Amino acid sequence: MGNITIREFKPPKWLKLTPDAYKRALNREALALTKRDRKRGGTYAVKEALRAVHCAFHNCDGTDPYDGMPLDEGQFRRMPMVAHRNQEPIAEYEILSRQTYLAKSDMTADEYLNHCKAVVAFRETQKEKG
């Protein structure tokens, strides 16, 4: 992203926000993430979080990376949420649906996927007993 400033940040095409609303949302997210992570030992600056959140939105194609379903600002469960890519207090994020964000909580990607597989496997055994 080079030396681009927040004034130049534009929302990705899939996100139905005006540039001004997008900048406000980025700023709000960056401040909240930085504050939360400082309590967990994070040392990055708000400016770094701004860039990382902006990159996460632009790296997202408008779908949740775990369930492949579209993100939708108008639907509460499918609302895009910013989450840490790893559970470390560093400025590396991904965009998830609110539904996945709440389900995944503080699990790593592998822990979450393994949990989902266990849920499906358990459900299948319950159907067989049926």
List the helices and strands and how they pair.
Blueprint: H1 19-39, H2 46-59, E1 80-84, E2 93-97, H3 98-104, H4 109-129
Antiparallel strand pairs: 1-2
Helix pairs in contact: 1-2
How would you sum up this structure in a few lines?
The chain is mainly alpha-helical and 130 residues long. 48% of the residues lie in helices and 8% in strands. 21% of the residues are buried.
How does this model look, in words?
Helix content is 48%, strand content 8%. The chain has helices spanning 19-39, 46-59, 98-104, 109-129, and strands at 80-84, 93-97. A two-stranded antiparallel ribbon has the order 1-2. α1 (19-39) crosses α2. The termini are far apart. The mean pLDDT is 93.
Features:
two-stranded antiparallel ribbon, 8% strand, 130 residues, mainly alpha, 4 helices, 48% helix
Mean pLDDT: 93
Task: Tell me the structural class.
Answer: mainly alpha
Distance between the termini: 54 Å
**Could you tell me the radius of gyration in angstroms?**
17 Å
Strand-residue proportion? 5-15%
Order of helical and strand elements? HHEEHH
Report the helical percentage: 40-55%
Number of E-state strands: 2
Given the structure, what is the number of helices?
A: 4
Q: Could you describe the largest sheet, including whether it forms a barrel?
A: 2 strands, antiparallel
- Biggest sheet, strands in spatial order? 1-2
Rough outline? globular
Residue runs with pLDDT of under 50 for 5 or more positions: none
